[in-house]
Automatic annotation (TrEMBL):
Stated name of the protein: Acyl-CoA dehydrogenase
Reported cofactor(s): FAD
Ranges for domain Acyl-CoA oxidase/dehydrogenase middle: 112-201
Keywords carried by this UniProt record: FAD, Flavoprotein, Oxidoreductase
Length: 371
């Protein structure tokens, strides 16, 4: 067994031992699994890239977590591949030591505060702004922020100039200037989705990440990593739903025969298995592009994210169909996955935004085709 397989195997064991029995509670009680997040950190799985794992190991980590709890996977993504990645890629030594290191251990909870009530897709229309008055003063309103209710720090994107792309990124610790309120969402419950308002928060220069007015570029590269992560989550959700349906089809009888023996049902599985494995192969290829920092990794991760989200939703829907009424019942894990998987087509760049990226790239450089 390779070192990477051993690492994933140890994660699987942890998830089976400590998370499987809590995943229904996370959803049902909207329960934020603080202790589990901490343990994931102690084991080095909360920010895999900071733990020196490869991009594909990061995808596999999220895939495994999503098989057990979509909510926990989204929490890990928000902490690791969104907030964490901003500091890992662009933070200075002090920011890495003071924030990223404790974030990786689950000692500090962090959110990426990017989307706003006026729109998540059109980042250039952002209204949150920061003015330099000795320190920076940040004011504005953010929406849909994962972990927003629980975050100790907010990696906040704000306007610092007049052009659409004049954006900068600030680390803002929770304090009196920050108001958070819960947003009820259909799936991925327990992730602390919130509206976050910054009322003239004073931020020292040391808490600016990267260069002032370079936020546009920084956000885009962080979101690319986020899209790779989301693809892993989508694949994991689809795999789990399919496994549940497979077990059911092999035990449930109708018309004197196992469900799995009906050709209509077998073909559902054949199609889904082929699609999941195609996604995994693409995820591996795209991850390699990230490891090698290829120039075209952005367009390929858009393809992967678009397909993973759409196909995962389709597979989960098919799995629910195979489970019949049971799949529609509260308490069934496929019912939960059906709600969890839906956001994969919206967050970190919707389907439409991925299509936009792919078509714009093709217009500029010609159709991208893998070697
Ligand atoms: C559960 C959850 C967790 C989230 N977590 C975070 C987080 O941690 N941090 C954060 O910053 N954000 C987060 N988000 C926000 C998420 O990134 C946005 O919802 C997403 O980017 C879409 O933005 P929007 O909802 O404002 O929709 P809009 O941008 O208003 O878009 C609405 C619809 O129009 C489509 N559309 C927009 N522009 C175009 C176009 N040019 N062409 C065609 N169609 C278009 C979109 O694809 C979408 O279907 C989260 C959202 C959810 C639901």
């Amino acid at each position: 067994m390779s070192e990477s397989s051993l690492i994933i195997q140890s994660l699987r064991e942890f998830l089976r031992r400590e998370v499987e029995s809590v995943s229904a509670k996370i959803d049902k009680e909207d329960f934020y699994p603080r202790e589990i997040v901490k343990k994931l950190g102690e084991l080095g799985f909360l920010i895999p890239l900071y733990s020196n794992l490869s991009h594909y190991d990061m995808v596999k980590t999220l895939e495994e977590i999503a098989k057990v709890s979509g909510s926990l996977a989204l929490i890990a993504d928000a902490q690791g591949e969104l907030a964490g990645e901003m500091i890992r890629l662009y933070g200075n030594d002090l920011q890495r030591k003071s924030f990223l290191e404790p974030m990786s251990k689950g000692e500090i909870i962090a959110s990426l505060a990017l989307s706003e009530p006026s729109g998540g897709s059109d980042i250039g229309s952002m209204k949150t702004y920061a003015e330099k008055k000795g320190s920076w003063i940040v004011s504005g309103r953010k929406m849909w922020i994962t972990q927003g209710i629980y975050a100790d720090i907010f990696i906040t994107v704000a306007r610092t100039g007049n052009s659409r792309k004049d954006l900068s990124v600030f680390i803002i610790p929770r304090g009196k200037c920050i108001e958070t309120s819960k947003i009820e969402v259909m799936g991925n419950r327990g992730t602390g989705t919130a509206e976050v308002i910054f009322h003239e928060c004073e931020v020292p220069e040391d808490y600016v990440i990267g260069e002032v007015n370079n936020g546009w570029e920084m956000i885009n590269s962080v979101l690319e990593v986020g899209r790779l992560a989301i693809s892993g989550i989508a694949i994991g959700l689809a795999e789990r739903a399919l496994e549940e349906a497979f077990q059911w089809a092999n035990s449930r009888e109708a018309f004197g025969n196992k469900l799995y023996n009906f050709q209509g049902i077998r073909w559902y599985f054949a199609d889904s298995i082929a699609k999941i494995n195609s996604l995994k192969a693409l995820a591996k290829e795209v991850s390699r592009k990230f490891d090698e920092n290829s120039n075209d990794k952005g367009v390929y991760v858009s393809m992967l994210k678009l397909l993973s989200a759409e196909i995962a939703q389709e597979i989960v829907d098919t799995s629910l169909q195979i489970l019949g009424g049971l799949g529609y019942a509260k308490g069934s894990s496929v019912e939960r996955i059906y709600r969890d998987v839906r956001v994969m087509r919206i967050g970190e760049g919707s389907d439409e935004i991925q299509r936009h990226i792919i078509s714009k790239y093709s217009e500029k450089y010609g159709i991208p085709i893998l070697d």
